[in-house]
Specification:
The chain is an alpha/beta fold. Helices cover 45% and strands 15% of the residues. The strands form two sheets. A six-stranded mixed sheet has the order 1-2-10-7-8-9, sandwiched between helices. Strands 5-4-3-6 form a four-stranded parallel sheet, with helices on both faces. The longest helix is centred in the middle third of the chain and has 17 residues. The N and C termini lie far apart (54 Å).
Amino acid sequence: MSPDAPASRRLDLPDARDVLAAAARIAPHAHVTPVLRSRSLDALAGCGLHFKCENLQRVGAFKFRGACNAVMALSDADAARGVVTQSSGNHGAAIALACRQRGIAATVVVPQGATRAKVEAMRTYGARLVPCEAGQAPRDAATAAVLAETGGVLVHPFDDVYVIAGQGTAALELLQAAPEVDTLIAPIGGGGLVSGTVLAARGVGERAGRRVEVFAAEPAGAAEAQASLAQGERVRNAGTDTLCDGLRADIGARPFALLQQAHAERQLRAILPVDDADTLAAMRLLWERLKVLVEPSAAIAFAAILRHPEAFAGRQVGVILSGGNLDLDRLPWAS
């Protein structure tokens, strides 16, 4: 099916061509975020680090890329129905902003316990918020009810062809800005960012005749993606125990299929578990040394490098800092 088909009708898996199409589609709307370096962090990690600062993206997170691509790809008839999604914050804010730019309605199902700053951002960008209990099953049930009520178009936060392709544009930009990068790492929750990153790495590698390998970082307290790859089928979290609020979702069907393929081909090298304590230490280090404000769900990618240095020794590593939205009145290291 054509990459320009309406987002609500794509049921296949995206590929590298979809990432290129997404880059062109979102170019008038999304920021090209900077890539930062730090000699002191390179020395600490034992590798070359190239930090892609998606915390400086619109709405403060990479999520705007996928949301913008999905919303702007909708046909006029689908767009007129409005968009429905589920989100703990960043994707909901991204959908709200993209819908506001297109002049259509956005409804977001929000689980209890979502970060206050993220909830306020969704409201500020104009979304209608529908609360639900925490957990994937309550999210899914509430989303189904809203879809039945509104007749809107679902733009899933990660299990969506256009969202995955849009998220892959962060890695595409990084590899274009730093062609020496041979390794990428990104956080994984639902899998949209990492699966998009795999597609971008594959596409750039095929065009440039080089191999770019990918790692994912996952909270040890919500490690269903690692378990899913190991068992060969999607595993649901029985419960989550992590401060990384953006990484608590179960891995989606499309991301899982893409990651299974990439793992079989050894392009996705590993999903690395990280304890929250290591993530918070890495987060503070990024604030102090790189002078960037990132949230735990972003800092985990750097934490994985520090926790598993043998996997990255001597490499040139692109690190996707996925977002910077957190409640500054409730910093995790504050007394």
